[in-house]
Amino acid sequence: MKKIAIVVVWSGKFPEYFPIWLRTVKYNPTIDWLLFTDDTSDYDYPSNVIVHTMSWEEIQKRVQSVFPFKITLDRPYKLCDYKCAYGEIFSKELKGYDFWGHCDLDMFWGDIRKFVTDEVLENYDVIGTNGYFILYRNCVRVNEWYRTLNNKGTQDYRAVYQTEKICGYDEIADGKGGGMIRKIRNNDIPIYIRDEIRTNLDIRRGRFVINECDSERALQKKTYFYWEKGKLFYKGKNAYSREYAFIHFMGKRKIYIGETEEDFFYFNPSGHVENKKRKHLVGEIIVVYRYQVRWWKIKRQYWLENSTTMRLIRKYILGNR
């Protein structure tokens, strides 16, 4: 089996949902996550998460050490532009792995190996097109691509690494002049991608939408996603079900975490599932996107569906069971 390591560099306090992110990581035991962070809080790290404690200043120095010119790395968010250089920046820690990658934290993992098989890894040097999850073959040739490939109308890495602007250099970034993935494509290098491993989850008018990649673009109301023992599914009407390698939450959002079981949770945009489904579900994660769904509407709908008062009204006054 090909060895995979995914690099995460994080400065500051981990988000509230980080323990659940770790839980979904745990169920991918054949993949390692290398975590470089200055958050020394006591988390229940699974055995496949290798933590390297580094201050923000140490992270800055580590990145700078790879480049012969003065770079700009004045804030953690700028790290997005350096993700495609992690193969060189963290070459020491990545030694012995066949593939390395980078990812975000605002996502939940399913069964990655089901979709990224050894056959895929044998035939492709790059898996994925979005900065929240991309894998690269761990070799000198590929690790140098960010600076050796012909730009062919895309941004040059030296300009990207000397500006304060966020350039989206880790992904396609067509609107910003073209990033690493656009550069790879323009050099006619094949990239492996499928709907189940580029899932970007948005919410519009109270329903989930998987953007830009899924044939089921406008998912219906009263549907939900659930995670169970390392498997991640979308559950729709008429018994429709689809498994994903992960779900990434798009845009500015707040993730509210309810009571969850160790090996099961579900999540949806409005914090509720139809009662007939809810009977069989324990725990929830309420995903709220600012500027698109107002929290008071969600609280009101949740109260109407689930409060004791409203259940009694429906039962004894409206005659609904």
Q: What would you note in describing this structure?
A:
- The protein has helices at 18-26, 56-64, 86-89, 91-94, 112-115, 118-123, 140-143, 145-148, 157-160, 180-186, 275-278, 295-306, 308-317; strands spanning 4-10, 31-37, 49-53, 99-103, 107-109, 126-130, 133-137, 200-204, 207-210, 224-228, 231-235, 241-244, 246-249, 253-257, 264-268, 284-289.
- The protein is α/β, with parallel strands linked by helices and 321 residues long.
- β6 (126-130) and β7 form a beta hairpin.
- The chain is globular, with a radius of gyration of 21 Å.
- The relative contact order is 0.12.
Task: List the keywords.
321 residues; alpha/beta; six-stranded mixed β-sheet; 13 helices
Concise structural overview:
With 321 residues, the chain is α/β, with parallel strands linked by helices. Helix content is 25%, strand content 25%.
Mean pLDDT across the residues is: 86
Which H/E pattern describes the elements? EHEEHHHEEHHEEHHHHEEEEEEEEHEHH
- The outline comes out as globular
Q: What strand line-up does the widest sheet have?
A: 3-2-1-4-7-6
Tally of DSSP β-strands: 16
Category by helix and strand content? alpha/beta
Largest sheet: 6 strands, mixed
Task: Specify the number of helices.
Answer: 13
Helix content: 25-40%
Describe the protein's topology:
Elements (H helix, E strand, L loop, with lengths): L3 E7 L7 H9 L4 E7 L11 E5 L2 H9 L21 H4 L1 H4 L4 E5 L3 E3 L2 H4 L2 H6 L2 E5 L2 E5 L2 H4 L1 H4 L8 H4 L19 H7 L13 E5 L2 E4 L13 E5 L2 E5 L5 E4 L1 E4 L3 E5 L6 E5 L6 H4 L5 E6 L5 H12 L1 H10 L4
Parallel strand pairs: 1-2, 1-4, 2-3, 8-13, 15-16
Antiparallel strand pairs: 4-7, 5-13, 6-7, 8-9, 10-11, 10-15, 11-12, 14-16
